[in-house]
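User: Round two. Same drill as before: sequence, then structure, for each protein.

Assistant: Same drill it is. First protein:
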Amino acid sequence: MLIKDLLDESIKENDVNLQALIMFLVFEKKVLSMNDGTHELDLYFLPKHNERMGNELTKFKEKMNMGNSASCYRVYTHEEETVYVKSIDNNQAMLFVKSMGLNPVTSCYVSESELMLYNGKHQTIKEIIKSMPVPCYIGSNQTEQQYKWRN
């Protein structure tokens, strides 16, 4: 897989940290190109670079105004229930659902423009989550999972 493909995937998944890492290395430091293989990123994930890269990426995200904004995530569970939560990333969404006593299987980003029936009214995800705390339970659907996700 190429770095440009990984960047596209990180945008789809709303992974701001991975987007920042790629943009920092490709556009800011110019040590990699979008046509390099993703294995070229392995060096930057070595434990000996964690602290320095963390500091560099924090500064870069501030410079580029790439804050960790919360989004909606759809989490599929072993209980065959689909749970929607507002969280910073997939990991937080999975942990939050686990804290609810459910067994999460996988999760995915939900676009802010997606419509959802919420409190009897069709609204965009953006409208629904704008004033909710992070992390936060939005709702669930007990029949959706059988049609949208299967191993």
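Second protein:
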Amino acid sequence: MSELAETKQTDMDKELLEKANAKKVHFTSEMIKYREIWLQDETNDYPFFLYIASIMNFAEYHNGGCLTELGMKSLELDISPYIRQIQNGDPKLPQKDLVRFLLNLVNSYAISILTKGLIEFSNEDPDKFFEANTFLPVVREDFEKLGSKAEIVIPKLKAVLDAYTPSLDGKYKRIFLEEKTKGFFKQIFDPNAVKIKSNKFPSNLENAKECK
């Protein structure tokens, strides 16, 4: 390799490193923000899903994160009006609302499975894991509680998804299937892509592809 080519390669490496570090700083800030909101009410699932999403984003910062911007926007959607409508005896949401509702749920479901897998992986060799993944000490201390919470919500989310995804009609079913693949940088809903590649992405994510 010529000296000029080596210089260009070095500059590219520096640029990639700078971008990765900027992502790491951003995701750290997100973790702090969502953790503080979650601590105000640990029974509230809304900040819980955002908090664990920020944890997975931090763990995958070198890939630009775990969730895409669309995935995070889906989790940021307040679905409480849809839930109230269902609880008030009107289980049939308009198709557009149903798509938004289900995308939020499927992303919450997937990120819960991923976080549970990450935490289980961290328990195998904590020293090595946290040396490679420099989580803030307060976040690290939350891992056990977050893992337990994820284990509880996973089957509940799956049950709601199984109950409501069959209500999607025609083009809205297609929209849902297309949009759910855009929520994550890695094709986690593809069982062949999930066979992994990384212990951070457990094989039981194949269950998520059934939500269709």
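The first helix runs from residue 3 to 40.

User: Perfect.
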